Automatic annotation (TrEMBL):
Helicase C-terminal domain ranges (all copies): 210-361
Protein name: DNA helicase RecQ
Organism of this sequence: Wenjunlia vitaminophila (Streptomyces vitaminophilus)
Residues of the Helicase ATP-binding domain: 21-189
Region feature (Disordered): 503-517
């Protein structure tokens, strides 16, 4: 308590911080799961100051180390770091400080621990504890595996008397189990905070014109608010920021392609000023601690629920009502599957990516409460929140078996009769009986399935295809995102398996109004 007050200037611990701090000070190992903003840092910083020796903090966030160390120094904590951005002189100076006990905290990039020289250095000093930040990076089945983290498995053997505290903001039960086994933390005490962020309203809407949909949201609900808009690509970050600025909204771009000075300037403006919208790739946000971010909007589908949860978690740290809004469509599924197919690494790695994407899609397509679904994913129970989009306007489901059969039959006919594969756009045009240039060119108006789907609108057909992809009743392949059947498609085609679908909402009138004006 004395350290908490004197050094950090806080009166009380939050949540389970005190128990964790006491446990680690007493020399116990700990696994801490706490959502972003929950206050994980104090859980190792306070014990490091109380126990004798230097607290060694392993963190993958090399870009943030300088900031973290500066912030600690401003509080009078003797902190330093070792990573690849330093020149040998700087490194030697920090090493000397470590050895002479002039440090309270030493931040280390994980790859440092693969070098015998670093291990020998650590042998020669006195270590008060090891803190393993972002511990989910050690889990191969996690969403953010980093091979360098595997080197951490030896810490317990090499320094059995030094307490270890592993911390993460995202871990499913499977990932948690893998952290425990890889880091040898079977005897560690687990501290699992609730992952619920009750003040965040989760909303996931079908994508038709994402920038206009976003603008409608900002104008209707977040005029003058600070917020973050995530896009997948740098180009789309630039386009979206431009669009917002032209629409009278103060917005700044942030991505790895900008020069470091511009990036730093945009980041500090976002932190300092009120009502700025940061349009960014996921490179933005790590370690950003701005309490009054009122909304986080995703214009593209995140790759995993873990990523989505971490990104949306940057909203509403002050506890006030905030919005997590995501728009996603058929093209997102096609694009993400394509990225996975083309990704480096072995089959197991691709399967892992696919499993994470499927979990994300299941969240998007769920008819359940979004919050309940999210908490369930992280192994926690909740009940319907009454505040997310599915609670506020429960989606209608409908028997989409016949519609699914029509889509699948079209894919089958193209393949069997024409030896062709096409993407969703052509399949939908065929179902709707549209004589487009591409339909005429390929003679697709003579297929028996031509025009058999006039009962649904185009957006509805795209919704059907998207949901079939999400349910893995259909798959995409190749650079052009052509549709193919899956092992499960046969059961649907033979009428052995019903397909329930969410009804596509009518396009929002608001989005249409701004579209026209
Ligand atoms: P995390 O690492 O879990 O995302 P941080 O450790 O960065 O969270 O803490 C988030 C914010 O909460 C920081 O601004 C921190 O200073 C503040 N904080 C943490 N613990 C306390 C506390 N006991 N009292 C007041 N503020 C706290």
């Amino acid at each position: 308590m004395e350290v908490l007050r004197r050094v950090f200037g806080y009166d009380t611990f939050r949540g389970e911080q005190q128990e964790i701090v006491e446990h680690v000070i007493a020399g116990g190992d700990a696994l801490v799961l706490m959502p972003t903003g929950g206050g994980k840092s104090l859980c190792y910083q306070v014990p490091a100051l109380v126990r004798e020796g230097v607290g060694v903090v392993v963190s993958p966030l090399i870009a943030l180390m300088q900031d973290q160390v500066d912030a600690l120094r401003a509080l009078g904590v003797r902190a330093g770091f070792l990573n690849s951005t330093q020149d040998p002189d700087e490194r030697r100076m920090v090493e000397a400080e470590f050895l002479s006990g002039e440090l309270d905290l030493l931040y280390l990039a994980p790859e440092r621990l693969r070098s015998e020289a670093t291990l020998r250095l650590l042998d020669r000093g006195t270590i008060s504890l090891f803190a393993i930040d972002e511990a989910h990076c050690v889990a191969q089945w996690g969403h953010d595996f980093r091979p360098d983290y595997l080197a951490l498995s030896t810490l317990g053997q090499r320094w059995p008397k030094v307490p270890r505290i592993a911390l993460t903001a995202t871990a499913t039960e499977a990932t948690r189990a893998e952290i425990v086994s890889r880091l040898g933390l079977a005897d560690a005490r687990s501290f699992v905070a609730s992952f619920d962020r009750p003040n965040i309203q989760y909303r996931i809407v079908p994508k038709n014109d994402p920038r206009k949909q976003l603008l409608a949201l900002l104008r209707a609900e977040h005029q003058g608010d600070s917020g973050i808009v995530y896009c997948l690509s740098r180009a789309s970050v630039e386009r979206t920021a431009d669009f917002l600025v032209r629409s009278g909204i103060e917005a700044l771009p942030y991505h790895a392609g900008l020069d470091p000075r511009t990036r730093a300037e945009h980041q500090s403006r976002f932190l300092r000023e009120d009502g700025l919208v940061m349009v960014a790739t996921i490179a933005f946000g790590m370690g950003i601690d701005k309490p009054d971010v009122r909304f986080v909007a995703h214009l593209d589908l995140p790759r995993s629920i873990e990523g989505y949860y971490q990104e949306t978690g940057r909203a509403g740290r002050d506890g006030l009502p905030s919005t997590a809004w995501l728009t996603y469509g058929l093209q997102d599924v096609v694009q993400q599957r394509k990225l996975i197919d083309g990704s480096e690494g072995d089959d197991a790695h691709r399967r892992r990516l696919a499993a994470h994407l499927d979990a994300m899609l299941a969240l998007c397509e769920t008819a359940r409460c979004r919050r309940e679904h999210l908490l369930d994913y992280f192994g926690q129970s909740g009940s319907s929140c009454g505040n997310c989009d599915t609670c506020l306007s429960p989606p209608e489901t409908w028997d989409g078996t016949v519609a699914a059969q029509k889509v699948m039959s079209t894919v089958v006919r193209l393949l069997r009769e024409r030896r062709q594969k096409f993407g969703a756009g052509q399949v939908v045009d065929i179902l709707l009986g549209r004589k487009t240039a591409k339909v005429i060119e390929h003679d697709h108006d003579t297929l028996s399935v031509f025009g058999i789907g006039t009962e649904l609108r185009e957006a509805e057909w795209r919704g059907v295809v998207r949901q079939l992809l999400a349910q893995q009743l259909l798959a995409v392949e190749g650079d052009y995102g052509t549709l193919v059947l899956t092992d499960a498609s046969g059961e649907v085609l033979r009428g052995q398996r019903p397909v329930m679908l969410r009804r596509e909402p009518e396009p929002a009138p608001r989005a249409r109004a701004t579209g026209a004006g």
